[in-house]
Amino acid sequence: MTPAKFKEANRTLRKPDSMTDEECSSLDVYTDGESCLSCWRMNFLERLRALFFGRVWLWVVCGHGTLPPVALECKRSAFRKEKKA
Fold first, then answer.
1. How far is CA 77 from its chain centroid?
2. What is the pLDDT of residues 39-56, one digit of tens each?
3. Does position 66 have pLDDT exceeding 70, yes or no?
4. Does the N terminus or the C terminus of the chain have fewer Cβ atoms within 10 A?
């Protein structure tokens, strides 16, 4: 999967100086001060694997044996469109 740019992004998380461009890249996110949201795209093979195996694995580089709260979902947009009155 590769990070995808999206119009609601309001911050860019930079890769750590200790990592190479092959290991990590900057990530565009939307943040409201409490959580960060990023968008990812699957290539064709990854889409097939998701369809057939029904699994998505999440890697979080922290190295402390703990995992911060995270969530994954598949839908067109994480942002709700407001209905006009």
1. 12
2. 999 999 999 999 999 998
3. no
4. C
